[in-house]
Predict the 3D structure of the following.
Amino acid sequence: MKHNTTDRLVNFDIQAFQADLIDWYDKEQRDLPWRKDRDPYKVWVSEIMLQQTRVDTVIPYFNRFITEFPTLESLADADEERVLKAWEGLGYYSRVRNLQAGVKEVKASYHSKVPNTPDEISKLKGVGPYTTGAILSIAYGVPEPAVDGNVMRVLSRILSIWNDIAKVKTRQLFEGIVREIISKDNPSHFNQALMELGALICVPGKPACLLCPVQQHCRAFREGVQAELPVKSKKKAPRPLSMSAAVILDDSGKILIHKRPSKGLLANLWEFPNHESVVEFNTQKQQLSEFLKEEHSIDVKLSTQFTTIQHIFSHLVWNISVFEGTLIGGFEDQEDFKLVTRSELETYAFPVSHQKIFKDFLKVMN
């Protein structure tokens, strides 16, 4: 049954909900490294990492990243190649580019102190409404909403709201709700508790309602519709793309690598030479060798296909046929192509798909 959201908080005991939620969080919160202090820089890094990435995956990355860049200034001053390498494997690399651009703004305009007002912080590169609310509430105790998918799922069930959470208007609706129900005394724990509840108890599909600390406040549980919420329209299926790639060595055993363009998917990361395959023309091997010769004046001989890699993006599926190859004739480093030794290869940031390519190549070589 759909509810009119204008009266969504009628007969809803906000204070009791706050108390039950925060009390549970204080007792049951996970021991996570970014919760050790309320350093706004560390909160910022953790929240950017946690976008579209699981907590268990983020923990070791966060620890390494903070060891590498312990202060806002150290990240602002770092070479981008080093930053990308520290992020390597987390994916969605535009996140870390925006993060570095944002901390540079803070260093230049705010004397390296993360601003503590919604107006200032929301203008920083890559800082949207969620990250704004998370930093302000967690680090500074400002009662700002931090609405992500977890929070929308929890509140959809608590208040039995049937609006499509994939729509911007629905996110704005939930931001308005959180402004009304957030604890003014402890907004940090309130927002983190909502996120934690969504991660541990009020999970997608079948929530653990019998363990829920705010079950008595939940309208969806009373109505028996918790498994049907939240409402979320489906995205289009990702488009498959056939590709060919090669690990190409010269006579000395150096490996040819290519730097991706500075804009677009996986910008500025390094990869092995590759090309989109067109089914109607020649073989994948021929297409790749002809592409390298005609477009980049690089003459190669490709031999055995040694692996196939599939990598799924939100909008694309790469199906990559991977070949061994050797460089023919001389080669001089170009702006976006260079030869490197195996040890040098370790210093360059590669997307996960091309990390897998090299792992499979090493298996073949051994």
